[in-house]
Amino acid sequence: MIIYLSGLKSDYFEFVSQFKNFGVLASFAKPDLYFEYLNYGFDHILLDSGAYSVSTGKAKINIDKYLEFLISFNVKCGVNLDVIGDGQKSFDNWNYIQSKVDVMPVYHFNTDISFLCKYAEKTNHIGLSPRIKANTDGIKNQLDKILPLYPGYKFHLFGCTSIPILSQYPVYSSDSTSWMNGTRMGWVITRYGNFFLNKQRDIPNDVELFLRETYGLLTKNEYPSEYDFGVAINKVNIHELDFLLCQQEVNHNRSEPISIF
User: Fold this and answer.
1) CB within 8 A of 70, min separation 6: which ones?
2) Cα 79 to Cα 67: distance, rounded to the nearest angstrom
3) Which of 94, 129, 154, 197 could crosslink 105 through cysteines, CB 3.0-4.6 Å?
């Protein structure tokens, strides 16, 4: 299974590239990121058309310019310029682009399943798009209906990297921005545990060095047992850990991000 990370910034290219089966999701609405991913050499790059940005009024995408981009830059894995909520228009757009270059169609759960059947007659690589803010049960119900009908098909699940879902439904690939949710909500995951960010405090340039020098704290795998690690972490002033940070989108007093460790 390939997991595509949406919204990945250059600060994390090196970190993400260490792991297998992770890719990046680019959008034609922000083509500069696609070239950043391409120049860095990611093995898996999925180019989305920007249809969601169009549906929210944040972008206007011309289908011929998108098609020209796909052809000119020999995009290996592109997504149809679907029209969210309009199954027929999405299908028409796919037929138009597909006549020139291969792209992945997208079946939206809120459109008639007949469109999925039409796509499945012509390709085995299909995107599945749940409703915006769809709950877990709703997604599972749809997957229960779809996957048994098309065994062996390469389904991509848009906007969902839920572990309970992916562990139960082994789709070919999926994407989401969930990997950024921790810092969006003020949480950060580190080798020392998960901590809440205090946005009003300065952030040390080297958090790991700070924790070692101030508290003598080691990383979890340096302790003989999880119990010993728990004893050590309990001695740390939790307020001192509040300024752990690993994502630029969190408002803070320093402009430079610190590295993930």
Assistant:
1) 47, 78, 97, 100, 101, 103
2) 11
3) 94
Rg (CA), the chain: 21
Please answer whether residues 177 and 6 qualify as being in contact, where contact means their C-beta atoms are separated by less than 8 angstroms: yes
Q: Where are the domains of the chain?
A: 2-176, 182-243
Classified by CATH at the fold level, domain 2-176 comes out as TIM Barrel (3.20.20)
CA distances from 33 to 25, 76, 201 (A): 9, 16, 31
Cite the DSSP H helix spans in the chain.
13-16, 31-40, 51-55, 63-72, 87-98, 114-122, 136-146, 163-168, 181-184, 207-215, 226-234
What are 65's two structure tokens? 């310019």
Residue 54 tokens read as 């169009």
Which tokens hold the place of 86? 């309009």
Write the CB contacts of 108 (distance below 8 Å, at least 6 apart in sequence). Answer: 82, 84, 85, 87, 90, 129, 131
Put the strands of the sheet holding 154-157 in their side by side order.
Answer: 45-48, 22-27, 2-6, 173-176, 154-157, 125-129, 106-108
How far apart CA 72 and CA 108 sit, in angstroms, is 28
What is the value of pTM for the model shown?
0.70
Record the tokens describing residue 107, joined without a space: 């079946």
